[in-house]
Amino acid sequence: MEQTQSKTIAPRDPDVVMQLSRLGSFHQSRLSFMRILLRRLEAEAWTFDRPVFDIDARGVGRAVYSAHGPERSYSLVAFANDLPPEKRSDRVIATEWDATFTLFDGIPTTADLDRLQNNVPKQEAGRVSERELSLSRANRSVRLWDYVVEKLAAGEQPDQTTVEKVGYLMRTTAVYGSGKFGAADREDTADRPEFQAPFQIEMLSVFLTRAFVMDLVEHMAQSRAPDTAVPLDPNLRRRFGMGNSTGLGMAPFLLTHPALLNSWIAAREEALARIRGLPDAHPSEVDIFRSFALRARLHAQDWYSEHPVQIAKLDALRADTAALLAHLDSVDLTADYPWNRLWLWAESALSVEGQELLASLLLEPYPHLVDGLSSCMGADETTTWRIDGAMSTDRLRTLTESIYRWALDTDWTSPEAQARVWYTSEEKLEPRLGDRFDEPVEPYEQPLCPGRDAARMYVDLCAASNTTVAGFLMHHPEHRHIVRRVQITARLPYAEIRDNTIADTVMPIDMLRLKLSFFGACHFDPRSDRWVRINMYQHAPFPHELGSRSGDDWAYPFLTGGAA
Amino acid sequence: MSWSLNEIESLARKAARGAGLSWGLAEEAGKATRWLTAAGLPGPEALADLLTRNDGADYDMLCPVEAREAHWSAKGGTLCPLVAGAALCDRAEALAAGDNMTLGQTASPMLLLPYLAAAAQLAGRGLRVSWGELTVTLAGDMHLQPANANALHAPLADSVRIECTGTRLPDAPSPAKGRGQMPPDVQQRLNAFAQRTYAPATEASRLAGAGAGLTDND
User: Fold this and answer.
1) Which A residues in the span 521-560 are in contact with B, Cβ-Cβ below 8 Å?
2) How far is B79 from chain A (nearest CA, A)?
């Protein structure tokens, strides 16, 4: 135990944090990329307009939503489609969508729009240019879309419970960034302050997409019944987020961007450690915390899933929020390192879902300790990427033993330990997960199983007579990728998922949730072990409301239905 | 039509893997092709030519062997710049300390340049590379200004000399930006190599592999 003279709390051990079951229980926080974006848009007083909205009564046409910052403007270019139901699929292999989008760097001319109209609706089969920063598409939630159009056309507001059961009118099924299909590379814009934090392009695109979707549904109701239609009540309108359906495509990113992953986790762990290290808390900070705990309970209540694993996690989470609120009533949280005491209580009293919710909640009362860390969440992979060939093989052995202890202790000859194979299908180059012993996919295996690869490398390393990494790799080029990972993780402790990504028990949705929680997503609703639906920006202000409503205080439902 | 550097790197990585390089070497081949493209050089062409030349070759035939002190050659007669380049980069400290190197016959020597640029950056010292009539100094910027462009594109060099200039380099430059060109035939050749890394689409894979099956129409 640490003594009271030094209450510097160290960030949590990566062996604890980087387990899939824990990463798959992460929640959004002050450090989520959506919240970082909206704080900036609000602080810099960005303005928004809609220079084009040319959509017919069938819902077909195009629209432009522009965002104007201190130095530059960006425009969401949207193409709306009248999609026959049989063509509607969330899968990457789909070829048509209800709506398609690109985020344009600046304000597009009519010629730009015409060029984009020939390409953006085709998505992967089209081609964009360095003027475009992202490419995405969305499908309607048919069950809610038709209902809302009908209600508004009849001059009525939709029922709030029906709205919240789904939570969005359209869900995106892929948001491509950085250089994909000809778009601008991330490196081209990374030095702009507004894109310094990760995924700000994608988050801006989704923020504007949500505004477009809500305008479109009102437009459709208006077109159907010009005499009776009404717009959505603004308070109800904000209860619509933007849905997203995500498959395995997101998982490899976490393994191919180790330095970036480290930056995300390290920022959150540093924030948690800072708050646990506070010797006392002002009563107003305790009140803020309590209020967010209440709102988090509301969020857990509104969170629907049909997946058995998530249902069990939600039951535990609801019990956790009740236990947390009861505990708050029984302890003094103003003195004697209150948040650390609360954290230590939670480690034995709450499920992993509840513990990770608490980790996010503890950041809420302390913007001055937390928000600045958002500037540490980007990463330049190139600075840690090159192999240090002068490192001794002894040192490499010691590092492997310390980082991959779990993998060296795993029996990789057991079929359960390497039951799965990550591979890329020739169909739209979709990443997939196959069965090593039942499907002929092993020859196509992608290097997304660092634990097994580290264990294999370690065997050869122990048998090698070379004294340097350079000499070892000359004879063992097959270990080059994993030696790189060992050396990166030696410098960046949260760079590696310290768990088995090819076990028979692996739940790829854990990897998806890790990434999506940093985006700021909520209401994780797994549709299988490798496919999840989420909600983004639910309760957030719309672009035209920024300035009159908080750009940051929206990530949990409001207790009274109004702004805090 | 231009390509983003990420597209070129990604295609090059997959093509190198498809041609038989290990994942780690293929990752570096992707970065090397990107670097050459950003420097205004025909990286994708050089890679496509090299992969075609070495398709099916055994690593042991391509791998450098220290024939005598500071002199590498390949057992198969011709060094692969993707293998030798990575090995040279692994010896960045020694190169910077003045351990000059000579390579025997080497295919597409232009592909060595990105690895040596990385080595120079890692060790903080400029490197000078020469083959035939050509000398290129790698000193932390992308302005190579070769006097003899034909030699730069040589499919083969009899020998390559690598020396430390002693010049101290500034800290890491900002990442290279720009767009790339790739003639259609080059893209097709790289795609054919990359295609080998993709599993054929089957109905079982389509359903189970992505974990779908529930309705999307809701």
Assistant:
1) 527-531
2) 13
d(CA A558, CA A549): 13
Please report the pLDDT score of residue B174 as a whole number: 64
**Whether B87 and A531 lie within 8 Å, measured CB to CB:** no
Q: How confident is the model at residue A272 (pLDDT cuts 50, 70, 90)?
A: very high
Is residue A438 within 8 A of residue B213, CB to CB? The reply is no
The partner residue sitting opposite A90, judged by closest CB among B31, B201, B216, is B216
Length, in residues, of chain A: 564
Chain B residues 118-177 with CB within 8 Å of chain A: 118, 122, 172, 174-177
Sign of CA dihedral A324, A327, A333, A338: negative
Instruction: Write out the H or E segment, with its range, that includes residue A99.
Output: strand A99-105
- Number of separate domains in chain A: 2
A contact residues 173-202, partner B, Cβ 8 Å cutoff: 178-188, 190-191
Which range of residues forms the domain containing residue A389?
381-491
Mean pLDDT of chain A: 95
Closest chain B C-alpha to A302 CA, distance in angstroms? 19
pLDDT of A90 over the 90 cut: no
Q: Is the pLDDT of residue B143 over 70?
A: no
Domain edge (last residue) among A468, A491, A514: A491
d(CA A367, CA A464): 51
With 0-12 / 13-18 / 19 or more C-beta atoms within 10 angstroms meaning exposed / middle / buried, residue B196 is middle
Which of A247, A269, A295 corresponds to the end of one domain? A247
In percent, the amount of chain A with pLDDT more than 70 equals 98
Cα separation, A313 vs A362, in Å, equals 21
**In angstroms, rounded to a whole number, what is the distance separating the alpha carbons of residues B146 and B136?**
6
